[in-house]
């Protein structure tokens, strides 16, 4: 049976690279870092600054200072505070999946593909950084709704529309799969949103128990939605 596996793109994901270990600002200033590593330092610093001061109260100067670079150095990676804020949300809310991820895999079973998809999806729920960014998104939706709406229009909506088209194309190529998910691909990962809320609000062992139950039900749901007609 053809698998959709990691080809299913999700709205929540862990960044492709792990967050570098924190070092003090003076060490960062003396060290020449590769661009991707420096960019990650800046994103980490931005998360700290936005979480403390909010988008409106945050300054590029303080973000640069937290990252151990100059303001000009920050602008070499991000053109504005707005771009930095959107890039930070993108690291968690937009999956790193590429179009090539939707190539059919005829060797996998549907069950193994679903398990791979859920592993990717639920691993984000265990990431403190992902939780922090989700908290920031929720808070800023109240404090700076226009900024979140701009990110939604510029990044999230086009991303989801493209993934929706890829999902529909994938299902058309696999006539044995149910097309019920083609209406809105958010159905594929919506139970994980509830699991994420449990982790954010409750946490600890209580949340872990609920999340395990949700994940198990989520698996059964996907198998039913994508099973042979």
UniProtKB/TrEMBL annotation:
InterPro entries: DNA-bd_HTH_TetR-type_CS (IPR023772), Homeodomain-like_sf (IPR009057), HTH-type_TetR-like_transc_reg (IPR050109), HTH_TetR (IPR001647). Residues 36-96 form the HTH tetR-type domain. Residues 59-78 bind DNA. One of its GO terms (molecular function) is transcription cis-regulatory region binding. Keywords: DNA-binding, Transcription, Transcription regulation. PANTHER family: HTH-TYPE TRANSCRIPTIONAL REGULATOR BETI (PTHR30055:SF234), HTH-TYPE TRANSCRIPTIONAL REGULATOR RUTR (PTHR30055). This is TetR/AcrR family transcriptional regulator. It comes from Billgrantia pellis.
């Amino acid at each position: 049976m053809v698998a959709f596996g990691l080809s299913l793109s999700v709205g929540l994901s862990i960044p492709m690279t792990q967050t570098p270990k924190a070092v003090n600002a003076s060490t960062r200033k003396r060290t020449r870092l590769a661009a991707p590593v420096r960019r990650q330092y800046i994103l980490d610093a931005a998360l700290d600054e936005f979480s403390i001061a909010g988008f409106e109260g945050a300054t590029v100067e303080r973000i640069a200072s937290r990252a151990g670079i100059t303001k000009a150095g920050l602008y070499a990676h991000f053109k504005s505070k707005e771009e930095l804020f959107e890039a930070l949300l993108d690291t968690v809310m937009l999956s790193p999946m590429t179009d090539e991820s939707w190539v059919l895999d005829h060797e996998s079973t549907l069950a193994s593909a679903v398990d791979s998809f859920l592993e990717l999806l639920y691993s984000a729920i265990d990431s403190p950084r992902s939780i922090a960014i989700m908290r920031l998104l929720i808070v800023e939706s109240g404090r700076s709704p226009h900024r979140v709406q701009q990110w939604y229009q510029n990044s999230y909506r086009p991303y989801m529309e493209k993934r929706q088209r890829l999902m529909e194309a994938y299902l058309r190529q696999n006539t044995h799969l149910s097309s019920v998910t083609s209406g809105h691909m958010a159905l594929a990962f919506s139970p994980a949103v509830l699991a994420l809320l449990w982790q954010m609000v409750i946490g600890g062992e209580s949340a872990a128990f609920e999340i395990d139950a949700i994940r198990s039900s989520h698996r059964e749901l996907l198998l039913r939605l994508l099973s042979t007609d």
